[in-house]
Amino acid sequence: MNSDSDLQIAGDILAVQHLLQPAPEHPSTISDFVGLARSIAADRTRWAHLVEYDAASRWYHRLAAGPGHEVWLLSWVPGQRSGLHDHGPSSGVLTVLDGQLTERTPRGSRELTAGAQRVFAPGYVHEVVNDSLEPAVSLHIYFPGLTEMPMHSAQCSPATLDAVPA
Question: pTM of the entire structure?
């Protein structure tokens, strides 16, 4: 009897583009939202012409909204950061579309290059920073739609976050 599972045979289904089902019109699962983010990321004509860069503050644009979710496009010039925050009752998917971003959490830092995705649950605390010398663009899907973004204290400041091993 063969004990190989589909995952052992095919690997990560989300990494095999031709095996992914099209994103449903109304996503309802984390996998659906990841698929939606990947389909938007792959369709540069849908978002690239909208991107603007603002040296004074992070630029953002609500790209779409559907039942129970919102899709946001953000740009980051070098040095811009979100500040340490969570997303209240919302879960989310963060996808880097262009450039490179750094995600810092109390557990460590992670470099995110174009195509990288992060999925998070309500209460997930992080800071996103453009530490590179080039601008970056990211896509954020929140479900339910983002209603709050509580900021967190300096107990997890960037210096503290950098000192924590990944």
Answer: 0.79
